[in-house]
């Protein structure tokens, strides 16, 4: 009780800073200024049938839910699906993927009054939180209202586990209230178990079940034919602040011939900043948003578009995985593997340690010790056609081998729903 009070008190103290940050982010990304009342539990939908609620905080989780939501629509056609997010980009991706078939809202801040208003309005028959979205007050209110909640596609790096340990009994109580935990790997399950999760099950990673859309496969083929020349293409995918400069330096020292570099920043609010960096360096570049074919003289193509990552991976002879060359913890290479693109990863991979480890072991990816080694390793790979082909095949095999997590998850979801229905009848 005392620990929970301290946790909630700290949240209230931090609220002014949170609101200032929300306003500041709105200047860079106006989507943060929309639907602000939802962040305090004010709900816009009129509930007329049972709700299944899934929380996918941002773009990656929203994409990963594609197969799961498809199965929900097939197996639970009389339920309304509610998808909550934490970011405007996640919400935009949800609208793009699911349209009006799925309700969308922001998940409220973890303040008692806000989450209580949200939970009592929707009264979901089941809640599912993806990956590491563990919110103690939200889970406490769900427990009080007899709403079962699962943690799915759960992952927990050692760094995150160390931070969560500071929450002590608050986190242990929250994890113990979950009706089920479906973890990506045994290492994730063990860390969650140590923090208080009861009997977490290992089912694999839902992201492997996201099939590349045929439209994006066709887009990649179109780009290839449109450029006409046989230029090699290197993709810097989901880059974070500071990495573009680092990778441009490495690219300058890479033996690459007339190869094209594509840079796709992780966050859309940084598109203009990266364009400005390219101008300052005197780089001949084009923007994807201009809608023009890539000229033979263009050195860098700035991928300033949303929802086209599969197409970018599909046109890449080599992918440099962003977030891993500076200490951001890396990004998932699952989409690159699904498109058969060889991947080079930097040393900072802790957020996706299991995916990175198994991809490297399978031959689908190469670990680069640091940015200083990147030009040499990249030069060798760009010049070695058989090795790139072998890595591409290994990537596809790796992707196919790890599919099926969604199908393994559905019986666990069904059991939680049956237990809830049984408790309501009693």
Question: Care to describe what's here?
Answer:
This protein is α/β, with parallel strands linked by helices and 426 residues long. It has 2 domains: 22-204 and 404-425, Rossmann fold; 214-401, Rossmann fold, CATH 3.40.50.2000. The protein is 48% helix and 14% strand. It has 18 helices and 14 strands. The protein has helices at residues 2-28, 59-64, 66-75, 88-98, 112-122, 136-144, 158-164, 169-176, 186-195, 214-227, 243-252, 271-280, 309-315, 334-338, 353-362, 374-383, 385-401, 405-425, and strands at residues 51-55, 80-85, 103-106, 126-130, 149-154, 180-183, 201-202, 233-239, 260-265, 285-287, 300-302, 318-321, 343-345, 365-367. Strands 3-2-1-4-5-6-7 form a 7-stranded parallel beta sheet, with helices on both faces. Helix 5 (112-122) packs across helix 6 (136-144) and helix 6 (136-144) crosses helix 8. The longest helix has 27 residues, at 2-28. The protein is globular and about 65 Å long. It starts with a helix and ends with a helix.
What structural keywords apply?
single chain; 426 residues; alpha/beta; Rossmann fold; 2 domains; 18 helices; 48% helix; globular
């Amino acid at each position: 009780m005392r620990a929970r009070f301290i946790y909630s008190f700290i949240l209230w103290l931090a609220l002014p800073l949170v609101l200032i940050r929300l306003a500041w982010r709105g200047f860079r990304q106006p989507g943060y200024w929309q639907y602000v009342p939802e962040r305090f539990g004010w709900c816009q939908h009129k509930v007329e049938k049972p709700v299944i609620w899934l929380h996918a905080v941002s773009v990656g989780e929203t994409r990963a839910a594609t197969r799961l939501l498809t199965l929900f629509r097939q197996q639970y056609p009389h339920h309304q699906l509610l998808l909550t997010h934490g970011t405007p980009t996640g919400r935009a991706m949800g609208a793009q993927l699911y349209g009006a078939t799925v309700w969308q809202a922001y998940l409220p801040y973890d303040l008692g009054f806000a989450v209580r208003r949200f939970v009592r309005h929707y009264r979901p028959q089941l809640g599912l939180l993806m990956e590491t979205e563990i919110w103690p007050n939200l889970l406490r209110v769900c427990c009080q209202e007899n709403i079962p909640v699962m943690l799915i596609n759960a992952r927990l790096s050692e760094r995150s586990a160390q931070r969560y340990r500071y929450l002590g009994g608050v986190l242990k109580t929250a994890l113990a209230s979950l009706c089920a935990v479906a973890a990506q790997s045994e290492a994730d399950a063990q860390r969650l178990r140590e923090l208080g999760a009861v009997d977490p099950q290992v089912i694999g990673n839902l992201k492997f079940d996201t099939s590349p859309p045929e439209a994006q496969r066709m887009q990649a083929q179109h780009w290839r034919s449109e450029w006409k020349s046989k230029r090699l293409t290197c993709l810097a995918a989901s880059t974070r602040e500071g990495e573009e400069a680092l990778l441009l330096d490495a690219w300058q020292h890479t033996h690459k011939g007339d190869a094209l570099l594509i840079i796709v920043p992780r966050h859309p609010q940084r598109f203009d900043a990266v364009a400005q960096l390219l101008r300052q360096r005197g780089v001949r570049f084009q923007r994807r948003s201009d809608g023009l074919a890539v000229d033979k003289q263009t050195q860098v193509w700035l991928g300033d578009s949303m929802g086209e990552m599969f197409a970018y991976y599909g046109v890449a002879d080599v992918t440099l995985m962003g977030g891993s060359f500076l200490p951001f913890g890396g990004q998932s290479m699952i989409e690159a593997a699904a498109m058969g693109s060889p991947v080079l990863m930097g040393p900072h991979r802790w957020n996706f340690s299991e995916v990175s480890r198994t991809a490297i072991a399978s031959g689908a990816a190469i670990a680069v010790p640091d940015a200083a080694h990147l030009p040499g390793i990249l030069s060798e790979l760009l010049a070695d056609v058989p090795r790139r082909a072998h890595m591409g095949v290994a990537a596809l095999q790796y992707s196919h081998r790890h599919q099926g997590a969604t199908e393994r998850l559905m019986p666990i979801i069904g059991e939680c729903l049956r237990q809830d229905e049984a408790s309501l009848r009693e």
